[in-house]
Specification:
With 203 residues, this protein is mostly beta strands. Helices cover 0% and strands 39% of the residues. The strands form seven sheets. A four-stranded antiparallel β-sheet has the order 4-5-6-7, with no helix packed on it. Strands 8-9-10-11 form a four-stranded antiparallel β-sheet, with no helix packed on it. A four-stranded antiparallel β-sheet has the order 12-13-14-15, with no helix packed on it.
Length: 203
């Protein structure tokens, strides 16, 4: 909770929220708050938001009866009636998929699925943090954890392909470490000289 108030004023992280009414003000979480007349994000008014129907979703998204918002800004062309958040910044309505409030082009909402660690896919493409990954096969794509993922031919860390990594023998060891039959990685960076056969992170 980032808002505070007394009988006369409301503050967001120590900064006064101008024109907020303390008697009806509530902290909605995720940086949002509202009183009986206005909605706010991080202490600033959400322009044209309808306070009575204003609710917070997650990942910075919120809605009222007419609009969807991300971090206090309207999301263009989003349909509140069918809008849902999916996690990791992704959301969709009946016609579009969004990441951090921006529509993704040429994505099929009906087949779109969030896999975790920022990865998602529809029937044709795989995405990381809203960006399509080139030359990836959605049908064989799998998220392994710690930012690592692979399809039948390549291994990725945070959406970046790892050169020379072997998908069939690749395994995640935890705390950012991973290995295949020939190499060891930490947060997507190969550790020269490390022996995969007896490498174990010390926790």
């Amino acid at each position: 909770m980032n808002y505070s108030k007394d009988a006369w004023r409301v503050w967001f992280r120590g900064r006064e929220v101008v024109d907020a009414v303390p008697s009806s003000f509530v902290d909605l979480g995720d940086g949002y708050g509202k009183d009986a007349w206005r909605a706010f994000f991080e202490g600033r008014p959400v322009i044209d938001a309808a306070a009575q129907s204003f609710t917070v979703l997650c990942d910075g998204y919120a809605r009222d009866a007419w609009r969807i918002y991300w971090c206090g800004r309207p999301v263009a062309d989003a349909a509140p009636s069918s809008f849902e958040t999916l996690g990791w910044g992704y959301a969709r309505d009946a016609w579009r998929v969004f990441w951090n409030g921006q529509p993704l082009s040429e994505v099929a909402p009906s087949s779109f699925e969030v896999l975790g660690d920022g990865y998602a896919h529809d029937a044709w493409r795989v995405f990381w943090s809203g960006q399509p990954l080139s030359e990836v096969t959605p049908s064989s794509f799998e998220v392994l954890g710690d930012g690592y993922a692979h399809d039948a031919w390549r291994v990725f860390w945070n959406g970046r392909p790892l050169s020379d990594a072997a998908p069939l023998s690749f395994e995640v060891l935890g705390r950012g470490y991973a290995r295949d039959a020939w190499r060891v990685w930490f947060r997507g960076r190969e550790l020269p000289g490390a022996s995969p056969s007896d490498f174990l992170p010390q926790y």
